[in-house]
């Protein structure tokens, strides 16, 4: 049966993992290469034609009835974070394969179908996310990637070469100018919205993007016993107020889908009996509305200058990255919505707070995403779980969507 096959394939891929806790299948690791060759074998059983591009994206193709038609693509990734879960990425690959398997049984589509397994979606190993889909979208950052190394000191390019890919030809992975009909990615939501609402399907309208700031507060270090309370320039006290300001400003913008987090702070000298002279913070502001993000950052800067002046400290703000949120395509969302209606499956439209390969594919062709619920919204964690019923509903909706896009 279909369901048994899907669960068996999910189980088998979960077996390609290092260590005892959760799933550790880093990009281009022996475990990921095993998972790739297992899934490639399944594609070959379905008589799909396989090619692997220079950065290692695997593209399995099932011809349609019209040899001239542009392909409808589906896919996700097989790499994981350290001690992650079984579903992030893998589910999108397996669901795509299950959908293609059904379409083979029920009758080929007009357009060819392509299952794409993207290289290095997670940033965990080399510090850059969605590398395979960026290369496919023609935005590979060759200069930065050339310097990227993992924690063992193995370079990204070196790791590509070691498994037989072609690091000096990464630019050839670009599919700019090629006719692609559509791309669809199915993924676990990685948040609690669908589960809380009791809905099996989310239709993603936009993917949030982060603006990242490094905030450096300089005060004056001093003896914690001898410096009077009213003449201190305490960098950490300023930083504490900035953390609260991030929360306040983001809360006031929450209706626009913008969120803000101070995820890390470093204090110098960082000893109990010295007033902190330096505090550095890393801040992540993200959302689906770029104007809202820009205004949030501006409001935060205004707040920070008031705080810094009152505390007698100096604050420098450095923008590390500022990515643009991605709107997915109405034509694909409409196809997913129609599939839900045809199958009498309830759904809601929503945004993705996390990044996905789909955000780069959206630059190449009409792109959509289908979310299914995951337990308590947990992901990147061994507890990550998606119920088999929800997985099968997702595959039903994906199959119908692909068929309608490919007719
Ligand atoms: Zn993922």
Descriptive report:
With 407 residues, this protein is of the alpha/beta class. The chain has two domains: 2-207 and 325-406, Zn peptidases (Aminopeptidase), CATH 3.40.630.10; 210-322, Alpha-Beta Plaits. Helix content is 36%, strand content 23%. It has twelve helices and 15 strands. The protein has helices at 2-14, 30-45, 90-106, 131-136, 142-147, 156-162, 193-197, 235-252, 290-311, 330-342, 358-361, 388-406; strands spanning 49-52, 58-62, 72-77, 113-118, 182-188, 201-207, 209-218, 222-223, 259-268, 274-275, 278-287, 314-322, 326-327, 347-352, 367-372. Strands 1, 2, 3, 4, 5, 6, 13, 14 and 15 form a nine-stranded mixed beta sheet that branches. Strands 9-11-7-12 form a four-stranded antiparallel beta sheet, covered by helices on one side. Strand 3, helix 3 and strand 4 form a beta-alpha-beta unit. Helix 3 (90-106) crosses helix 12 (388-406), helix 8 runs antiparallel to helix 9 (290-311) and helix 10 (330-342) crosses helix 12 (388-406). It is elongated, with a radius of gyration of 23 Å. The structure holds zinc ion (ZN). Residues 77, 88-89, 121, 187, 356 line the site of zinc ion.
